[in-house]
Task: inverse folding
């Protein structure tokens, strides 16, 4: 049998030592890589019969809301007209919605027309004690056929308004800008809450 030279034996010993030293680290890295998706929950059930009546259109007949024929969502069609901010409102007339365990409200929507759309999301909360009326806004800029999201974070104040009090949400508005020439349309795919509250409940 051919014996390895002293130099070769040293190389083999060094290689075994390096592999042994690295093995525990590699194993630890593999076992600690855990990926978890952020959990969200719907706050308006758009799939129920009559869901289109939950979305109140702007006054007049410029805005029409129907159930989507391709998904569990709502189709919103906006005819040309003079309304400054045409759209729909989800209002809690005799109550408020409590989302104090969440960090944001998110609108998911799809542009179903042939024009670029900028859609705004607004969330209002009512005043309570020393906490003033709150308002938060977000927007989505969508090309024809594109889907996207608009978010309102509860801990971010809007100009001239306090941050949204997630415990006392009164209404959710979805709207776009005035247009007197072209018809526009989009689909509300879902309205969900997610994230974690970044303020202690005692401050709400």
Result:
């Amino acid at each position: 049998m051919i014996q390895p030279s002293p130099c070769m034996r040293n190389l083999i010993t060094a290689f075994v030592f390096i592999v042994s030293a690295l093995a525990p680290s590699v194993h630890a890295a593999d076992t600690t890589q855990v990926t978890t998706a952020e959990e969200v929950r719907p706050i308006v059930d758009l799939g129920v019969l009559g869901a289109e009546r939950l979305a109140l259109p702007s006054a007049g007949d410029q805005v029409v809301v129907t159930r989507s024929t391709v998904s569990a969502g709502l189709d919103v069609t906006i005819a040309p007209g003079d309304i400054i901010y045409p759209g729909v409102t989800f209002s809690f007339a005799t109550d408020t919605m409590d989302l104090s365990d969440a960090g944001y409200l998110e609108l998911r929507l799809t542009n179903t027309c042939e024009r670029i759309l900028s859609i705004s999301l607004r969330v209002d909360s009512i005043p309570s004690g020393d906490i003033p009326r709150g308002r938060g806004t977000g927007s989505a800029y969508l090309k024809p056929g594109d889907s996207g999201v608009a978010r309102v974070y509860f801990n971010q104040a809007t100009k001239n308004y306090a941050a949204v009090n997630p415990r006392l949400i009164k209404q959710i508005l979805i709207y776009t800008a005035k247009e007197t020439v072209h018809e526009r349309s989009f689909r509300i795919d879902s309205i969900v809450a997610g994230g974690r509250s970044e303020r202690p409940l005692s401050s709400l």
User: Anything to note?
Assistant: Helices lie at 6-32. The mean pLDDT is 83. The first strand starts at residue 40 and ends at 42. The first helix runs from residue 6 to 32.
